[in-house]
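Supplementary notes (optional reading)

For those who missed the lab, this is the record we used. Protein: Transport permease protein. Length: 262 residues.
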Amino acid sequence: MRLKKEINAIITIGSRDFIKFIRDRFRILATFIFPMIFIGILGGSLQSNLGKSVGFNFLTFVFIGSIGQTLFQSTASGIISLVRDREEDFAQEMFVAPVSRFSIVLGKIFGESMVALAQVVGIILFGLIIQVPIDWGHMARLIPFMIIPCLLGGAFGVLVLANLGSQVSVQQIFPFIIFPQFFLSGVFAPIKDLPPVLLVLSRIAPMTYSVDFIRSIYYYGTPEYSKIVLFNPATGLLIISVIFTVFLSLGTFLFVRNERER
């Protein structure tokens, strides 16, 4: 009975966030702008200039990287609604409900994960339109694993936003945390060989493991695998599991503590 109540809470909170997304036309439009620019303009340009010299298709490389980046970033950014809920006192109403605090946070992550997955469907359709060279067999095997970057992004969002007190601080600080990871995580270029400082920063950036994990699944068994992928899928999944557990536990603890101190 207790487990059923927790599951119902997760589904209810998650469904609320997804419904809010599909009703927000501006957010739907905005979420596709950056991936389309990155894939269509940047990816195409890099393919024209560097594609032959690196030994793999840069447009496909950026396309798959953008999927990993979108799954992570969209879920992390979507958790911003926790701050909005806090300012509207909706968070306090949720946290006095007779359900686990982890269920409430997981419900938020679940909802934003559904949003991120919907966005990826749009990105794939865009890839079809501009004729990105995609191996659809490899793409199909990505489907069961797309939730993994969403979970990591959600846990990361909870940890960061638990320490931000208002939407103003979110708008000022969060972009400085997210945007550098676009480049450090290897969305646009391989990061196997980097100068020491950039190497350390890239390995610290959580988005790195989302992007690399998605690429490791897609490119597994291909000649390009060794040139592109940092960690094999099993190692990547283990790293993500550890980071997710730490971020979710610490982020939930800090968020609940801050709510109690209000």
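If you only remember one thing from this example: Residues 2-261 form one domain.
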